[in-house]
Amino acid sequence: MKRKKEERKKKESKPGSFYRFLSIVLIVVSIITLIMTNSLGILPLKFMLPLTIILILVDVVLIKFLLVRNHLRIISSIISIILIIVLCYIIIHEITTLNFFSKIGGTHYKIVNYQVVVLNDSSYDKLDDLKKEEIGLLNTTEKDYKEAIKELEKKIRFENKSFNDNNALRDNLIEGEIAAILIEESTNNILKEEDEEYKDKTKVIYSFEVKIEVEDISKKVDITKNPFSIYITGIDTYGSISTASRSDVNIVVTVNPKTKKVMLTSIPRDYYVKLHSKKENDKLTHAGIYGVEESVTTIEDLLNLDINYYVKVNFTSLIDIVDSINGITVNSNYDFKTGVYDSNTRPYSFKKGKNELNGKEALAFSRERKAFNGGDRVRNENQQLVLKAIADKVLSPTILTKYNSLLSSLEGAFVTNLDDSEITSFIKKQLDENSNWDISNYVLEGTDSSDYTYSYKSGKSYVMLPLEDSVNSAIDKINEVLNNE
Q1: Lowest-pLDDT choice from 224-228, 275-279, 305-309, 428-432
Q2: The domain 109-213 belongs to what CATH superfamily?
Q3: Average pLDDT, the chain
Q4: Overall pTM > 0.85
Q5: Where exactly are the structural domains of the chain?
Q6: Going by CATH, does the domain composed of 228-482 fall within 3.40.80.10?
Q7: How far is residue 78's CA from residue 76's CA, in Å, rounded to a whole number?
Q8: 20 contacts: CB under 8 Å, gap ≥ 6
Q9: Which letter does DSSP use for residue 253 in this model?
């Protein structure tokens, strides 16, 4: 009888299979959490070490109570289940973050869109209609245009006639000397904007894209220790970020991690500058047609500055990012309406003061310039307001509930030649130091004028002539940040 009682007591003291299973799950989930957290590389040692110690101690205490039969076993099991759920939630976020960071990095190619354009009153409605017809082509050494010709030749057999520039292509098409022309999409849009006759008399019957390899133009530095500059460009297209197109947003962000100073320098899209590789004057926005590399080198020439990295976004990027964080609050300096219409065919309207904006409204707010006497200058200011509003929302505690949707919207929403290790190391340092940053901004000034541009030589276009004092002032302000002043 005594032996049976001892065996029953010994059996009762052993933990049940459920509690053993719960203990194993808790250990496994905790280990995965610590491994994933360490893999992210953004948590400083002063946080990582206490987190590891606390989690181990909590696991030891909980498992002890789970494996020993006493009145705390039920409570311990409930706490363990809650902890496992929390850790699984953290792991999901960490996997999402790791996946996001793994896809960061500059693409080694650009996408250039091309169009085949014919006269409206011609009998050509599709590409096949141009078989054996004469198509106007540019006589150029540009790699992307040569690739476009090759792609077109794969589709149809045609006769070709070469011209020295896009204006000659346009003139010969309008005069009926050729059946069609092959032209880059953004350049075609420029012709339509500048020439009403061309816009009214022509149509696009075929569009395609070519993918061209580009060199990495980054100038690597340790961004946790050394000052650096990033060029932010917003192109005027929807869809693929890698598309070469006009740059409507041109902001140079200069950062000094030592002094914790940041300088935002906005450059108007119509600033009249010398394109770096073309050696001719044009609007800054047109530099984007020839790739982000052209924009970077052109701005480097203008501001006597080395730009280390770039970030490239487009219309779709802004809409997706703002919507993923449930909108932003922008404090407008003006009452104004835009020339862009909403789904109800009404112009977007903004009031002076606070405005709650969704993605499309934020885009309209950022793009408007004709409503202001200050034109591009005010638009640049508004773009900086939108950037600040996004930053405020992203850095707020409420973003935690939208974390996955934010990363999802960012995936594919931008292209940068910063790599993931540089970004994570910068985040890690910020978490370690928890510093406040001194952020200032400056918008380059200019005067309204008209002049010939490299991209449109037939007539004068609106341009903004740079004010030398304003450019020099921007250079001085940037150098103050770079030189630890």
Answers
A1: 428-432
A2: Periplasmic binding protein-like II (3.40.190.10)
A3: 86
A4: no
A5: 12-100, 109-213, 228-482
A6: no
A7: 5
A8: 67
A9: E
